[in-house]
Amino acid sequence: MPVIVKAVQEQQTQIDTQEQNPSNLFSRIDHPIIKLSNSADWSDKVFGPSYQLRPLSEVANFIEEHQHLLELPSAQEMMDAGLELVNINALLLQKIEELTLYQIEQEKSIK
Asked: Which of 52, 75, 93, 111 could covalently link to 43 via disulfide, CB atoms 3.0 to 4.6 Å apart?
């Protein structure tokens, strides 16, 4: 069964999943570079002095109520509206950076 990759550049690339060398599966896809138009849209703000890390209890309550992480789209939102690659990458990196800060806080409280 073929995999369809929808390219932003007005084309669709069809890849045969039965290629003899699976490591070359995506070798025919043109990988565009996606750049930020505004550095404020990137996740570096997480390490800034004014960034307010949410209490984990608030994060847990949101997850329990909505079944997804705060600020990230739900599965239904993804199905309805799709995603912008730069935005979702920035959000995912923000979550990784927040996890790093939570771990640093946890280590400080243990010591």
From this structure: 93
pLDDT, one tens digit for every residue, the chain (111 residues): 333 334 433 344 444 444 455 555 555 556 667 777 777 778 888 999 999 999 999 999 999 999 999 999 999 998 899 888 888 888 999 999 999 999 999 999 998
Quote the CA–CA distance of 12 and 41 in Å, as a whole number.
28
Q: How many CB atoms lie within 10 A of CB 38?
A: 6
pTM for this model (two decimals):
0.67
Name the amino acid, one letter, at 103.
Q
Angle at CA 46, nearest 5°, toward 42 and 49? Answer: 125
> How far, in Å, are 5, 11, 19 from residue 27 at the CA level?
13, 16, 11
Domain chopping of the chain, boundaries: 1-32, 34-110
Q: Tell me the C-alpha distance between 16 and 57, whole Å.
A: 46
Burial zone of 67 (CB within 10 Å; 0-12 exposed, 13-18 middle, 19+ buried)? exposed
